[in-house]
Amino acid sequence: MATAIESQRVTFRAGADSTLLKGDLTVDYKLRAGAGQALTVELKCSNAQSYFNVMAAGTDTALFIGSSSGNRFRGPLPSDGDVRVRVYLMRPATRRTETSTFSLKVGISGAPLAPVPASRDALIPGTPYHASADVPCGSGNSATVLVMNPEGQKRQFLFVKGKAVASNQPEKLSVQRRGDVSVLLLRENVERYEIVDALVVGG
Q1: What is the reported pTM?
Q2: Residue 57: CB partners within 8 Å, gap ≥ 6?
C-alpha cells in the first residue's frame, strides 16, 4: 500500500518573494501562483539520491524532473493555481533504508498575467472555455490552450502576446511558425500540435 505524501502550504513573509524550507521526508510543497510568473527552486541535500519535481497547477504531470535535470529550476508557469514542488528520495535508496535531510529554496517572481475582461473575451455558452477549434496533432495578451491529444492525454500551452512560451510538460517546448499557425513540438518532435492564431487571440 502506497504511503500518502505529506502536503504543506508555503507562504512568503510580507515583502519577500522567496523562502527557505527544511525537512527530511517526501513532501509536496504547494505555492499559489499565476500564469506567467517565474518559479525558482534550488535543493541542497545530505543524500545525492534526493531530488525534486515540479507539477504545474491542475496536473500531476511533472513540468521538471530533478532526477534527470538536476537540483535547480527556473521557468515560467503555464497556468493559475497551486504549483507543487515534491521533494523525494529515489526508491532504491528508500529500499536500502537510507535517509536524507534537505534545504529547499523556493521563490516566485514577476506579476501574473492579467485576465482578459469578460466583456472582451466572452465564454462559449454552456462551457468554461473562451474559444474552441480542432487542432491537428500527432502522437489579447495571454492565453492558456488546453489540448486533448488522440491518446487522451492533456497538454497545456501558455501563450504570451500570441507566442507560445511554456507547456505543462518536462520536455523543452520547440515552436515553429507557419503562416498564422504555431507548430508546437514535444518529445523530440514525437508530439506535434498546430495552434491557429485565431484560437489564441480571437478572430
Answers
A1: 0.62
A2: 33, 77, 79, 80, 81, 82, 83
